[in-house]
Design goal:
CATH architecture: Roll
Number of domains: 1
Radius of gyration: 17 Å
Oligomer: single chain
Distance between the termini: 14 Å
CATH superfamily: Tgt2/MlaC
């Protein structure tokens, strides 16, 4: 599960860099503005060196809950197995998936702290807004293009996918997770166990 982890870490780096103003202020109901507000929360947390690792991860989990539509992403990445999963398995998977994402954030995003971030634009695609950004790393000759898929819910905007250079994080997760389940004779519990192990470091 290395590629999705990299996408999440790089994407979070974009949120960190976005906290530095690089374009005119956007309307409060703008999807790009939502990404910027999330970035400010993450940057404030990252600068708080007084937190223990457990406190840091707990607060990062809170930000992830607010920013990402984890239940919707989890349902998509589980694919056809979501329909056959029991209510308990669905609940366990969503929780394990959220914890795994937070673990990826907590352990990797600091590696990309020297990156710079620029919003290119946004466009409407069905019920989602696609926020296109570029992230430049010090040792990379070309910036990486990252597209945030943002949906508007009853609780405000939520991130539903992140694509790096045309590679969808959600689709990549779906392919990898389905492969794990297939290798274990369709047992969703095997995937849940793996995610829980990775989330615990």
């Amino acid at each position: 599960m290395r590629l999705p982890g990299f996408l999440l870490a790089l994407g979070l780096t974009g949120l960190l860099a976005l906290a530095t103003p690089i374009r005119p202020a956007l309307a409060a109901d703008d999807a790009s503005s939502f990404i910027a507000q999330t970035a400010n929360s993450v940057l404030t947390l990252a600068r708080n060196t007084s937190l223990s690792q457990d406190q840091y991860k707990q607060q990062l989990h809170t930000i992830a809950d607010q920013a990402f539509d984890a239940p919707r992403i989890a349902q998509f990445v589980l694919g056809r197995y979501w329909r056959t999963a029991s209510p308990t398995e669905r609940q366990q998977f969503v929780q394990a998936f959220e914890n795994y994402m937070v673990q990826v954030y907590a352990t990797r995003f600091r590696q990309y702290s020297g990156s710079t971030f620029k919003v290119i634009g946004q466009r409407q695609e069905g019920n989602s807004t696609m926020v296109t950004t570029e992230i430049a790393q010090p040792n990379s000759p070309e910036p990486a293009r990252v597209i945030w898929q943002v949906g508007k819910t009853a609780n405000g905007y939520k991130i539903t996918d992140v694509s790096l250079e045309g590679i969808s994080q959600a689709i990549t997760y779906r392919q990898e997770f389905n492969s794990v389940i297939e290798q274990h004779n369709g047992q969703i519990s095997a995937l849940i166990q793996q995610l829980q192990q990775k989330a615990n470091g």
